[in-house]
Amino acid sequence: MLLTLFYMVSTWMQALKLSSLKARLATALSCDPKPSIMFSIKPPTSEHDVGKDINASGINENLLSSYLCSNKNEGKLMDLIWCQGDKRLCSIHPQQIIDVNNWLLYPFGKTYFPLIMNNYGRAKLNDESQIHVLIEADINYFNPNAFAKITKLEDYGLLVTWTADKSFAAIMETDVDHMSKLSIALMHNQCFINNGLLLTRIESIEVTGKPCSYNLNNSINLEGKKLVGKAQWKSHMDKLKLFSKTAWHVSQNGKSIEVDGFPGIIMSPGSKILTLSMPIILQIDSHCEGNYVDDDKTLFKSSSSVPSTPPPTPASATMTSGNADLHLPPNFNISEASFDKHTSTSATESADESLKTFSYTKIAENNTFVNLNTKLSEEISHINRASKYSPGKKPSSIGNLSAKPPNVLIYSDSAATRDNIKCVLKQTLNQDKYVIYTLTSSEARRDVWTEQTNLLVVCGNVDSEIATQLVNYIVNGGQLLALCSDALHTLLPSFKTAEVREHELVRFSYGRWKNVQMMHHIFCYQASPVKTRFSQDHEDVKTATPQTPDSAHVKDKNGKVHTFQIKVLGKEETWQTPSIVLADLPSSGGRAVFSQIHLEADPSQYEIEESKLNSLKDSNNARLEILSDLLSSHLGMDVKPQTYIEPTFNPGFFLGRHELKLEMLERLKNEIKENEILETPNLKLQFCGNTTKINPASSTCLPVMLHRCPDNFSTIEYFENLNTKELGRLVIYADVMTSSMDVVNGVKMHHGLAVLPRQQTQGRGRNKNKWLSPKGCAMFTMQLHISMQSYIGKHLPILQHVVGAAVVRAVRTSPGYEDIDLRLKWPNDIYLGEKIKIGGLIVSTFVKLHESICNIGVGVNLSNDLPSCCINEIIMKYNEHHGTKLSKLSYERFFALVFNSLEYLLDIIENGDIDQFYQIYYDYWLHTDAKVNIEMDNGRMEEVKILGIDSYGFLEVQGQNGCIFMVQPDGNSFDIFKGLITPSAQR
């Protein structure tokens, strides 16, 4: 009892200390300009001093920053946050910078070189506070006992690059929370890291440059898990230094070099900069009870002992199958689980993606990019391919169906301008139809996004390579809006430039809008220059402007000439120069609108110039109306109706058998606070009985009525169609929610609980992506409690495929609806036919005791005509085509059918009939024998054939030489089948 009490007090003090330190670090890192945060430990002077305190006063100059930082001499102490003995935690100004051009990429996966670790990036990182951190360790001291008390770096982030010279150094992707946890571990004298290295410094830094890449093979002894004796230690350190020296030569010479003494290991110059993004397929929240062990034979082990490495995310999990140990795939991380970064055209997360790349792991041959346990390939290489199962009957065609993806992409050379454009588009476009994303410079240079974009908005300068892509996009039918961009001059070379004064307020006219005062671009592009500036209002003299040509000839990337029809839509009043120009390509339907007026600029940007501010305020309604008219009349976009009304929050309803409701509330009684409120991270749920004082419904509070039923949800129809034992037997329904995922986030409620929103205001997808949630869309979140010892519990990534198959099967096994052409696109999209995406899903998981608590979020276009097409529309088309009289699927019946189907599939899997599930899955999927391209580590493209999915749901493909690959999405934002697959080792 005393030990338990001591442990509770110790845990509470630890959490308090962590919270305080995290707050201080977050405050320091929010400063502008951003500083560096550094924890340093003065290295011992001899082996006998290892682990001992060495008194020192103040911060020694050589400890203020790392010798690896390019601006170390500029570093000044900003704040001493913590100090004890030889350890210091402080902030440094300016932020320290490290150039990694002569560093090496750190392998992704289970490695013995350069360090023994599981570099899977399993720590769940907060996107908003991600940072790069330098990890620096002393290589001059060997302690044979250090392995027993190491702090595992993989518990705190993902190592991305490394080097070894005077010390061993690595750079890790982490966040403020995990840096705080690592600092506390070091404060508690846990200063040895992987390989028994003595850590001397961690420091938040800015990274520049591109680290070198290399392959591993059997010429390096990677078998030993521990370095025993000084001879092995020195040999290993010599290898690290040799590799780092080779990287320096590769960086200097700019060409690939074979590492001296290691035949077949080729080191190549870096090709990609490091970005703060980790490849994630499945993550499991660390909201778990009990400790994890990094044991080759054990998945989870409960213990009451204090963990040797304090509170961070758990150690890596291992699965046992038969007599062989199956290690989780590299991207199986212990943090939040979401599958796929983007979803469908409506209730699914992002747009219908334009370029989604893959991470892959080679599971054949020796030239692996990451050193994985070879037993994995022996277990999964050929067991679950689509070719093993006979394809199902292909549904009959229902005419030509087409729907443009709802993507609106913004490309800008200025972050502030990009935010302005996004803001004004949200005010203007129909929010039920479009999802707005940013197109990066590197993405803009690739042509795979062009087919998946409804509208591209460009502002500012574009280089020649991007300009070529813009031409290619337009000539293939794309719609472009260029706001104050030199794209006008680049795409229509006949327009020359006449410079004007910066921040010029001019009067212009467009259509019915006359003499509107707006800000003009610093350059005025026209057929030929007339003046170097616009006239002031008091200047009466006007000079004739050369006539704008009626057409322009433009070459695409293949050298083919296209003739654009040119029309001036708006003119500046004084000099009659073109303010808004339309370039139309009738042959393809491609169009471009060029505005030399700052239609994206809000008047508040000019608060310091009162006269301009007042004029722009007077013109603001006209600005929005003009932009709306350009988008609708000339670019074919659907703009927001003037009668649009924001959704209103109202109380929700708790539906189901009274005994089940009481059972759930009884289990939650310790978590339900005063006034019957249960708090989740983003929402307060209030379970309201007859005497409860009901709080107003809002975006942060959802009252749930226990003893009432909704007016617009038929409980009779729902429960009459529901044939399950557990799934969907309890329902929380509301007309409007922020997101159904918010209701169950982080709380173990009830197995099979369904959350049904009629409409969402902040529909959630992975990595901050938005789900479009128009009325008529069928959205739900279901919570499943899955035993870690069950088949699915041991193969959690497969769950997303089970859910996707359940949704499609729910419709296509209903009598009469067998030929409704619903399909599955890997990994988690639901399609009508082969082109129209109508649904998708995410899965968020945390572990509690011996269960995975899986929150499944699904959105499917059921009855909504926006943003593209829906199931009931296709049913009506099917009736017209085949003379049938199938009824539309009601909201209530659809959910019941899906839950029936999901429970059926879960039951057959748990009963051991996994082959039956694969037969169903392959009956519905789109990819049998499809071919895609893999971008190899050296940039070479290789065409591969899709074989099927493995036991975890990852894609199996086969190269032209017969080599088998496992393929997994790496979190990029576009279409995975547009042809680019990137090795995770390059990230």
UniProtKB/TrEMBL annotation:
PROSITE patterns: BPL_LPL_CATALYTIC. Keywords: Ligase, Signal. GO terms for cellular component: cytoplasm. InterPro entries: aa-tRNA-synth_II/BPL/LPL, Biotin-prot_ligase_N, Biotin_CoA_COase_ligase, BPL_C, BPL_LPL_catalytic. Pfam families: BPL_C, BPL_LplA_LipB, BPL_N. It comes from the Eukaryota. Belongs to the biotin--protein ligase family. SUPFAM superfamilies: Class II aaRS and biotin synthetases (SSF55681). Residues 301-322 are annotated as: Disordered. GO terms for molecular function: biotin--[biotin carboxyl-carrier protein] ligase activity. It comes from Microctonus hyperodae (Parasitoid wasp). This is BPL/LPL catalytic domain-containing protein.
